[in-house]
């Protein structure tokens, strides 16, 4: 018996089906006032039929959805059509729901990039469904902090402690990186963001280890003279000696993949 799996007839039928899926998907998106393109229609082909039976249409007709889908379309428009794949509903629908009402540009950038990469045959290996929940659990400023790690990979920090000769004492500062000034965030809030990123396994706290880059910790100490001054002025009673603990945060292996999956 001859093998007809690669016959011209079957190939034509397959091409026709793919074209129909793209057209149907684009019609659905157009009816929801969402910009559409050949690439976007093909990527969301698996999902178009499900949109009719969900609450997505109500959510999608708003200013945030329109803006975010325009962003998604821009990410896909230069991708060759043959490299576009249909996104699994398990990944596509949760992201579509999120970008339908996400007003923050930094979080919207992560969601749309994740969906765009899930739409590409050569990028799908980067995408994990759990990344959606990680974005869900992030504050907008944490997306900015991750961008710092993408540029630097690791970030040094210091922590000031007042203690006595027996090394008993108390911490008088959070773990300070100086980047809270760059992003204009209160140091206490910045520390909370870092701890959340650690809990999400996106960065590692390498407490107990330190970087060997010359001068990096001395420069940090000079940014925060108030802590040294407070100990010199004996503000902590018997704890009249200053100890500066040095360490760093680093981007984790999961964090590296997450950034690759959420950045175009």
Please give a quick description of this structure.
The chain is built from 14 helices and four strands. It is of the alpha+beta class and 264 residues long.
Protein architecture, described:
With 264 residues, the protein is α+β, with helices and mostly antiparallel strands. It folds into 2 domains: 129 residues, no CATH class; 118 residues, Translation Initiation Factor IF3 (2-Layer Sandwich), CATH 3.30.110. The protein is 55% helix and 10% strand. It has 14 helices and 4 strands. It starts with 7 loop residues before the first helix and ends with a helix.
SSE blueprint:
Layout (H helix, E strand, L loop, with lengths): L7 H24 L6 H6 L1 H7 L4 H5 L2 H14 L12 H11 L5 H14 L11 H7 L3 H13 L1 E10 L5 E3 L7 H5 L3 H13 L3 E3 L10 H8 L1 H8 L8 E11 L1 H9 L3
Antiparallel strand pairs: 1-2, 1-4, 3-4
Helix pairs in contact: 1-3, 5-7, 6-7, 7-9
């Amino acid at each position: 018996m001859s093998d007809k799996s690669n016959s011209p007839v079957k190939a034509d039928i397959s091409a026709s089906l793919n074209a129909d899926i793209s057209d149907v998907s684009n019609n659905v998106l157009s009816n929801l006032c969402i910009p559409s393109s050949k690439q976007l229609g093909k990527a969301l082909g698996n999902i178009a039929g499900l949109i009719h039976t969900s609450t997505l249409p109500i959510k999608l007709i708003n200013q945030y959805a329109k803006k975010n889908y325009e962003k998604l379309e821009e990410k896909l428009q230069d991708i060759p059509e043959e490299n576009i794949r249909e996104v699994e509903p398990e990944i596509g629908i949760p992201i579509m729901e999120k970008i339908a009402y996400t007003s923050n540009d930094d979080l919207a950038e992560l969601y749309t990039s994740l969906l765009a990469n899930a739409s590409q045959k050569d990028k799908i290996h980067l995408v994990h469904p759990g990344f959606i929940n990680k974005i869900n659990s992030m504050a907008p400023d944490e997306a900015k902090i991750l961008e710092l790690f993408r540029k630097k990979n690791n970030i040094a920090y210091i922590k000031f402690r007042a203690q006595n000769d027996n090394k008993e004492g108390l911490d008088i500062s959070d773990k300070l990186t100086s980047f809270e000034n760059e992003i204009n965030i209160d140091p206490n809030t910045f520390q909370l963001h870092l701890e959340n990123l650690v809990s999400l396994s996106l960065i590692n706290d390498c407490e107990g280890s330190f970087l060997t880059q010359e001068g990096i910790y001395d420069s940090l100490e000079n940014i925060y003279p108030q802590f040294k001054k407070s100990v010199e002025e004996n503000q902590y009673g018997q704890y009249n000696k200053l100890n500066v603990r040095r360490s760093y945060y680093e981007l984790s292996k999961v964090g590296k993949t997450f950034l690759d999956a959420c950045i175009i």
